[in-house]
């Protein structure tokens, strides 16, 4: 299950969004700088009201010092950057050294599975050739996807109405890139777990 939207399912543009956010921010900075420069030069040329010159100088300096807009990375751009063949919902991932879990996104590439949080920070990287087994399993509290590689294991939990669909989609994405001999994990979870 890839998350690349087709043109038929793309979001409608919002009113006033003809320019990307980055371009609007740059236009604001240019307007602020030119307006500030005009307010500096106009009173000097006319010979009166130096208060406007000071205000214009402040506007000009603010325009120079404002940071450029941070680019918003989309899911598709991040998948392209990582060379991922598919980007699927990873449910919630809890690292072994932490008691809290984080929403995860799995970027499945032929050489590596990258697990990233909502802000695209790396939570885990799994070398695809080293995956020995994986399996989506139903438990009393939802669905789980367990991935084993080398001496490591990772578990992704899914809850809610679409838990099975999301867990199966992640399992299928892994199946498409893992070595042909990688068996699915044995059913290790007890029914009450």
Distance between the termini: 28 Å
Total tally of structural domains: 2
Tell me which CATH architecture of the largest domain applies here: Roll
Largest sheet: 7 strands, antiparallel
Order of adjacent strands in the largest pleated sheet: 4-3-2-1-7-6-5
Mind telling me the CATH superfamily name of the largest domain? Pleckstrin-homology domain (PH domain)/Phosphotyrosine-binding domain (PTB)
Low-confidence runs of at least 5 consecutive residues: 1-17, 189-193
What is the CATH class designation of the largest domain?
A: Mainly Beta
Radius of gyration over C-alpha positions, nearest whole angstrom: 26 Å
The name CATH uses for the topology of the largest domain is PH-domain like
Measured by DSSP, the beta-strand proportion falls in: 25-35%
Summarize the structure.
This protein has two domains: 21-65; 75-177, PH-domain like (Roll), CATH 2.30.29.30. It contains four helices and seven strands. The chain has helices at residues 21-46, 50-65, 75-82, 163-177, and strands at residues 86-93, 102-108, 112-116, 122-127, 131-139, 142-149, 152-158.
């Amino acid at each position: 299950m890839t998350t690349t939207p087709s043109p038929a399912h793309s979001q409608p543009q919002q009113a006033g969004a003809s320019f990307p956010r980055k371009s609007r921010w740059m236009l604001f900075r240019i307007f602020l700088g030119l307006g500030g420069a005009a307010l500096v030069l106009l009173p000097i040329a006319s010979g009166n009201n130096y208060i406007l010159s000071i205000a214009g100088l402040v506007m000009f300096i603010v325009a120079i010092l404002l940071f450029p807009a941070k680019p918003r990375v989309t899911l598709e751009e991040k998948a392209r950057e990582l060379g991922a063949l598919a980007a699927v919902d990873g449910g919630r991932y809890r690292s072994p050294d932490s008691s809290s879990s984080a929403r995860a996104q799995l970027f499945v590439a032929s050489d590596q599975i990258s697990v990233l949080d909502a802000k695209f920070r790396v939570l885990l990287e799994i070398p695809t050739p080293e995956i020995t087994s994986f399996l989506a399993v139903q438990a009393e509290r939802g669905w789980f996807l367990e991935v084993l590689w080398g001496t490591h294991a990772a578990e992704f939990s899914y809850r809610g109405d679409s838990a099975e669909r999301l867990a199966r989609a992640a399992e299928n994405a892994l199946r498409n890139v893992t070595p042909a001999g990688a068996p699915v994990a044995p059913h290790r979870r007890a029914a009450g777990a």
